[in-house]
Amino acid sequence: MFKFCFVAKPYSPLIHSRVEIMKTTNDQISRFIYQIKNLEAQIAEVEERGELAVKDAQLRIRELEEALQRAKQDMALQVRQYQELMNIKLALDIEIATYRKLLEGEEDRYDDEFSSKNMPFNLDFKTFHDIGSLSFKSFCSRISQGRCVSF
């Protein structure tokens, strides 16, 4: 062993330099391994957060699709109700038009009968103008006495 040390002595600075290089390299490798482990942990954390974000987004999409389906069903119901109401309105409009025509026919018939009879008095614009100044009782008495020709 002594011989080995004696032979190695001239190479001692070289060996020492190689040992330092190996130490530095081992330290660098250790730092790189630590950085790799740290980066792998960060990647795993980001992947986990990404998966959670995707799951949350999928859940939100499902909720929105369900809400959209409910809104479509509600809208379809409202459209049906609106159509029913419009049908009822149309039927009522037709009924109102029918009664209006009947009423107009009755008015025409009444006007024909009223104008064909001999009236005991003549109502003109002056009569209607002057009627406003009379009391109802005096107006009725003038009609019953046949004095409505003019006031």
Automatic annotation (TrEMBL):
Cellular component GO terms held in the UniProt record: extracellular space; keratin filament
Annotated ranges, domain IF rod: 1-110
Coiled coil, from the record: 29-88
Keyword Coiled coil: yes
Domain of life: Eukaryota
Keywords in alphabetical order: Coiled coil, Intermediate filament, Keratin
UniProt GO molecular function: structural constituent of skin epidermis
GO biological process, one term: keratinization
InterPro entries assigned: IF_conserved, IF_rod_dom
Any matching Pfam family: Filament
UniProt similarity note: Belongs to the intermediate filament family.
Protein name (Swiss-Prot/TrEMBL): IF rod domain-containing protein
Species whose genome carries this gene: Hippocampus comes (Tiger tail seahorse)
